[in-house]
Structure to design on (221 residues):
């Protein structure tokens, strides 16, 4: 049984996946309440499924990009469970979770999440034989900058707020995903994690760390 945890943004997601089916899944907008809501919701999901943490065989967590505090909370809880019960811990890039849930399309895809201060973080993807594959690192941009960068028809999914919809409405090359396909599903995170485990995932829990966004003005670590 694998527990998936996503706290990368204000939307929190949890799922239980036994390797064949999603047994439980929930998402909610937690805002800044990850600290107080995450652990109780994990306990509630396990209780409803009739299992204890000792029944888990692995843990998966969204590692970023995303909100600094949210990522730290999710990764910390995931590591705690992993170390306490000697479980594999699988880290998955946040926007890969969104990308894996999208249908095949001919045009490139841009997956987005809010980056604060009127900006979004986006990763471009291209459909290949194995599904959607990232073609670069996350870019941080404003909505007008994003609009101006769309030089060809592009499928856009993820966190598009009112400002984004207004700006992109004037860009005919932007093909917006419907709301149901713009939410990161923790069940998808769980399926990615199972795929990685079956493919030979061998990172130690200590090697699974959050990936934060940096602007060009910030010093390198």
């Amino acid at each position: 049984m694998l527990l998936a945890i996503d706290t990368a943004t204000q939307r929190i997601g949890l799922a239980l996946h036994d390797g064949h089916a999603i047994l439980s899944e929930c998402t909610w907008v937690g805002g800044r309440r990850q600290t107080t809501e995450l652990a109780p919701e994990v306990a509630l999901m396990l209780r409803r499924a009739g299992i204890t943490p000792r029944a888990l065989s692995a843990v998966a967590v969204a590692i970023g990009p995303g909100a600094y505090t949210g990522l730290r909370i999710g990764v910390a809880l995931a590591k705690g469970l992993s170390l306490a019960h000697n479980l594999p811990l699988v880290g998955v890039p946040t926007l890969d979770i969104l990308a894996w849930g999208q249908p095949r399309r001919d045009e490139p895809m841009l997956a987005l999440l809010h980056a604060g201060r009127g900006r979004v973080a986006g990763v471009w993807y291209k459909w290949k034989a194995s599904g959607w594959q990232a073609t670069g690192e996350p870019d941080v941009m404003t909505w007008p900058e994003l609009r101006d960068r769309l030089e060809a028809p592009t499928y856009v999914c993820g966190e598009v707020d009112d400002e984004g919809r207004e700006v992109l409405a004037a860009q005919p090359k932007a093909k917006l995903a419907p709301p149901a396909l713009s939410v990161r599903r923790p069940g998808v995170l769980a399926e990615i994690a199972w795929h990685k485990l079956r493919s030979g995932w061998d990172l130690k829990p200590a090697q699974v760390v959050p990936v934060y966004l940096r602007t060009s003005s910030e010093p390198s670590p």
Observations:
- The longest helix spans residues 68-85.
